[in-house]
Amino acid sequence: MFFKKALRSIKRAAFGRIVRQIDTDIASIGRVKVSLRLKTEREGPYVVLALIAPGNYQYCPMDIGELDAVIKAMSEIRAAAAELENST
After folding, report:
1. pTM listed for this prediction
2. DSSP H or E run through 33
3. What distance in Å separates the CA atoms of residue 60 and residue 53, rounded to the nearest whole number?
């Protein structure tokens, strides 16, 4: 079962049609990029979150439901950061 899931993740990261892609530079030297890619395959849409740096590429494919969980977590972290910013 593990290998089947691992192969599916590799397939989703490498293949599938990109419907939309948004790239954001995150390092001060502009050489690290976060890429959010909406892709589609026969089973439907999914997202690949990629971290791209010189010589290092990390890909994390996820279902739309998993994306929703990541967005919720990011919103919670952002709210906590806002609280810290306002307390100083």
Report:
1. 0.84
2. strand 33-41
3. 15
